[in-house]
Design a protein that fits this description.
Keywords: Electron transport, FAD, Flavoprotein, Transport
Strand order of the largest sheet: 5-9-4-1-2-3-10
Family: Belongs to the ETF alpha-subunit/FixB family.
Cofactor: FAD
Bound molecules: flavin-adenine dinucleotide
InterPro entries: DHS-like_NAD/FAD-binding_dom, ETF_a/b_N, ETF_a/FixB, ETF_alpha_N, ETF_asu_C, Rossmann-like_a/b/a_fold
Strand content: 15-25%
GO molecular function: electron transfer activity; flavin adenine dinucleotide binding
Radius of gyration: 22 Å
Length: 338
Amino acid sequence: MNNIFVYCELTEEKTIADVSLELLSKGRRLATELGVKLEAIVIGSDLKRIEDQVFPFGVDVVHVADDNRLFPYTTLPHASLVLHIFHHEKPEIAIFGATSIGRDLAPRIASALRCGLTADCTSLEIGDHFENKTQTEYKNLLYQIRPAFGGNIIATIINPETRPQMATVREGVMKKEVFDPKYKGQVKKVNASAVLRDEDFMVQIIERHMEASKINIKNAQVIIAGGYGVGSRENFQLLYDLADVLGAQVGASRAAVDAGFSEHERQIGQTGVTVRPKLYIACGISGAVQHRAGMDQSAQIISINTDPNAPINHIADYTIIGSITDVIPKMIRYYKAN
Ligand code: FAD
């Protein structure tokens, strides 16, 4: 069996993006399970010792294409380089982030290779774990797991025929974990000039405007999330007050965002961000499957809801039955005093 490849994205600072480190962590586990190697692809410019950033995640081989025309990302040269590598290496599995870059690049690669692609996965597993493990034709396949039909079912998708088995994976759903800080793999330099042609540079970036978002809830350790039950934008201020006391970030359900109670950048769930904080306090949130998809990996969940039967209470570690307008001021007073 051939190896597992992860396409690694770069941040503006030319470090490996968190989403790619998450995918390498998952890739390492899958590679160990299948008894194959984990390979990374890094494409950019001025990539000084970039391998030092990926080896601790258990990367056996990193393919590095370093050329001043390759940063920031543009579709055509990156696609040509990935295809060049794939033609030579024939990966068994290829994983990309479900980011704007991954969503642009992965379908182009899949289409060029005429293979399938499962977008927006929330989990990847090797097939043996599943009930049909006795069906040998499904053994050792990549089970690509993602919500489907508006989040009402969780679909498991397999690709028994074409290779590589390709998936994009949502940011934040895989745990970023160092495999071995001293792990050392091999660096394979890719000669970009020899691969790329003039037509790969048909699209030129003339100007870039960076909009710094002040809101970043993705890595918050404590999140106070408000739903439609919070009732108004004014009531959301209670959540900010509690967040101040706890050093937390404020998140929101889609219904709260749609009602104008909160900004879209704070939306958690299937069509928002995925979070896994140490503590998630759900305030006036019913717990629809599309919301849970973005927060059910939280270490501890507290629900504050007037309805004892709200679905969120079934996954909460603690439930407080009551109105947020009564409960939150009491919590603020308590935490301020302690
Ligand atoms: P509601 O379901 O209206 O629940 C409000 C809750 O507040 C109730 O449980 C109620 O008992 C409680 N309540 C009322 N008053 C009070 C009070 N004073 N104090 C305490 N509790 C009170 N949703 C997301 O959140 N994120 C997504 O990314 C997302 N993506 C979606 C994608 C698709 C394709 C679809 C179809 C839907 C998506 N949704 C998403 C919407 C989702 O289905 C739900 O409609 C939404 O999550 C409901 O938000 P809510 O829990 O805030 O509101």
